[in-house]
Amino acid sequence: MGTGSTGTSVFSYLPLLFLFLILISGCLHSSSPKNLAGSAPERFMNLTEIRLTSNTSFDTVPRISPDGSKIVFSSRKLGDKPDKFDIYALDIKTGDLKRLTFDRNFNWAPEWSPDSTKIVFTSNASGNLDIWIINADGSGKKRLTFSDSQDFSPCWNPDGTAIAFVSTRTGNADIWILNLSENSLIRVTTSDSTEASPVWSPDGRKIAYISNMSGTFDLWLIELGGMRKRLLTSGIPNVQNPVWSPDGNKIVFESFQPFSDMEGGNTDIWIVYLNGNGPVRLTSNETYDGQPSWSRDGERLVFVSARSGNADIWIMRSDGRDKTRIASSESEEYYPQFALNDSIIFTRDYKYSRDIWILRIRGDDSQ
Fold first, then answer.
1. Which residues sit opposite 305 in a β-bridge?
2. pLDDT tens, position by position, 142-165
């Protein structure tokens, strides 16, 4: 299954598995819980697909703004080198597309600030990977980290005052926090292992991340008040892509299980409860189930599954029941994320290009 990952030379210092984790995962925030009318499964049986971008480009890793009005994404023109991406922002209602970066470097995996006014992203414009920030209108582009190492995978805290990220500045990959108001750095993890994929809890008091301290990637939690660490998974191989539930009580994640008698493996979606229950396996398939994203009320998960032969968009309840395919084609679909009013954005491949689409509830013209 293709992941849309690019530019392996940029990450030549990383093991292949870690490269895979970093390129397909991002800091996917869950919005605050809301009471949404019409949340029965039938609501998702009355969908219409709308193509939002249509060009000779590879548009990928889309992220919906917290206010629901825009989508930011990385885009590479066909024919460019695999690591040449710029950042674009799309107004969902008007269709206006604005290019935010123009240097054609590896500008990757943009993430919205909680107030939808700024975008943080990873770029190699300085020669190595650093964390950069830019205003949503394209002004104020600024480099935030300065080292000869690699800094990547930025993730905003819920009030927009700090950014967690991964850095190799001490020799191995650790989790760091950049305090934006004080322009100060805090090292969060200090082991000799590889830590990655930091994601803040909705209350901003904890960070979930993955670490291979045990020999395989497990899910860990750190409470920032006292820097107390807690192991959330054990014995589940190659955990990746953790995503908090909107209420902060649960985390879904992927687990990659290599096949013992052949190349490759399968990926499934799991959930762990912060009250100590779990982990619980939500999908069980000899293919790929991954890229989970929470609905805004926390009742459902949208995800990618290749169980039908292609990578399609599926939906299920948060306990794994009622799995239903909601978008499919002869192409491949990736990166689903809930928008406002239960709309869902995703990407769809066409030969060498990739475009961004939205699934809307029929009759809903709010976006």
1. 289, 312
2. 999 999 999 999 999 999 999 999
